[in-house]
Amino acid sequence: MKGGNFRVLAMRKKIRRIITILGTTAMIFTVTACGNRMDTVQPAASYVADFFDIPDTVTGIERLLLKDDMAYMCCLEEDGTSYLAAMNIDDGKFLKQNLELDASVSLLDFGFAPDNSIWAVCLEQAGVYSLRKFDNSGSLVQSVDLAGVMDTSVISAVGRDLFLSIDREGNICVAAKGRNTLVYLFDNDGSFLFSLDYEGNLMTTTTTAGGQIGICATSPDRMNYDLLTVDMKSLDWSKDKIYLGATAGLYGGVNKDFYRFDSSVLYGYAAGAQEGSPVFNWSDMGLGTSEVHLGECTDGRFVVLAASSNQTEVLSYEMAVLTKGADEREILSMVSLSATPGLVQAVSDFNKTNDRYKVELTEYFPYAQNVTDEEWDNAIINLNTRIISGDMPDILDMSHLSVQIYQSKGLLEDLYPYMEHDPEIRKEDYFENVFEAISLDGKLPYLTDGAAISTMLAGEDIVAGNDGWTIQELEKVLDTYGANSINNLSGASFLKIMLQTDGSFIDWNLGKCSFDSPEFVKMLEFAGKIQESSQNSFGGTEMSESYAAAYETVLSVYHITRYRNYYNGNLRFLGLPGGGGEYHVIKPEVKVGISSSSSRKEGAWEFVRTLLTEEHQMSCMMLPIHKRAFDKITQAAVDGKSVWTWIYEDGKATKEDVELTKQLLNSAAYVENDNQTLESLILEEAREYFSGARSALEAAERIQSRASLYINEQM
After folding, report:
1. Are residues 347 and 481 in the same domain?
2. Average pLDDT over the chain, rounded to whole?
3. DSSP states along 520-551
4. What is the DSSP letter of 41?
5. How confident is the model over 419-447, as a mean pLDDT?
6. The pTM is what?
């Protein structure tokens, strides 16, 4: 292994974590539903947070352990340097620890033995992994070469993904992340005892309050997380594993056996319990969940290391010490069916800095949780029932709700007057077409911080001579190049895209639809032709060997870069197929509105306006709609200093790519409006046509009947 690979390995690992930050990217694993968040038990206690900065040079942290009012952490810097550091939880003083470790050796993870010595897993530049013991003074007293224990295939694939935990008897666990979870057990003298494996993918290791080694890994089907503990007597996994569901992190406890968190809430688990109880919401504490490490003090305080990110820098950390106490600020209620990590972070940032107001975010489902259509519909019914009964929140995340329905009922404030009367917000500082696209009947029902652009593209030679882009012209591409020649598109996905962007089939003011029209039948027939189209993933992976055109959601300038390179500079953005001309669609990162019945509209605007600030827009993971923020993040891409640079294999964008991205964002005149319930019933009937069970006209008539009933119910 070359010396420079240290930095690459570290950054790649870091980027995998950053991906969980992206509001556009689901959590790494889809997990099963665990109930309606609105009806869960609220935390039994409230906490207040004191914050301490961690040096900006720290760009990665691998572990947090508490000992004698000190928070110990394994730190990583951008140049690949790693070391053990300690931070005083009372005053925030940061000190590097003096471990006898060559600069060429990378510290991957560590733990404290019962005799207060330190065991660590290390990686040398030559690709040698070792288990090392240090005494109280930091002197190296023992080193165990892991090559004699770990298979060659594991060593070649594990990278920096080695984790260490120590039980109360001093037994040491080294766990490797590979295709499966591989666990190696050593005694307190460093002698190898036995190994275990598990079919799931490793997240982390921990030590429970009972002193057992715990392994958090996905279930074999990768659909859930499990907690397994090691039985040192039977040399096997303990009999009972705990099913964790949605999990973003897991840590050992003091007053609880262990803690886990999902995208929003920290849960504490008693020994042997299958269900945890809520401790606090991350956003209440002013904390995000993009990169978190947590420890519990014996006095009940929590120490949290949390990171934030924007598009021009990777990660910056701070430490928060949470103490039980009352928060005297005025509460602003906010409801979301499923809040993106970016929205949770926005709430966290507001709660951290605003002295007067605190936003209490309530979610029905954790982000990226796999929810059935019935559960989703029931959640919407529950929310609508609450609203009808007068229980309307101050702030509403409209990302998964029908904006048209809520607007037609007069439930959302027009945000234009708020913008006009805010002295710090000038419309000319933004891509104003975004506001115009969002507007309904001249009113602005919600705001977003960033946007992606849904469009179609092709090589110039593919569509030469076409001024517009109709379904008929798209059909010619399929006839010429094959049914699977359009990247990222299937029949169902095409139909869903058109339903979200083409509002011509529903008149929400009149409560009528026209899904039995010849135009919709024609669209359905075309969708049937591409139902077997390939689904080639673009983001961060190798592109398809051959395709004539592509559907793409442009999140960053790098999407332009990659496609321009693929088409050798002859790239043409076509837009979605419409009656003629370009038809690019804005996909908002968030959709946050204010209730028209709120008694705290001033406070609600205090939060909503933060989405428009230049500082916040630097942290959104789509294209900022603030022009200066847009210029800064795209310049970072040109300079090769963007977070996207690492995601897309150290590439650099060009000024021409930036200009094309700006033109694309500036020309988008439509906005994506989704209604999951309506889309589900339409796609259900469309699949009957795709399978040959019904004709296109029969499917369209059934869609018209069911959609009419649904729309009438909503009106």
Report:
1. no
2. 84
3. HHHHHHHHHHTTT------TTSPPPS--SEEE
4. P
5. 95
6. 0.80
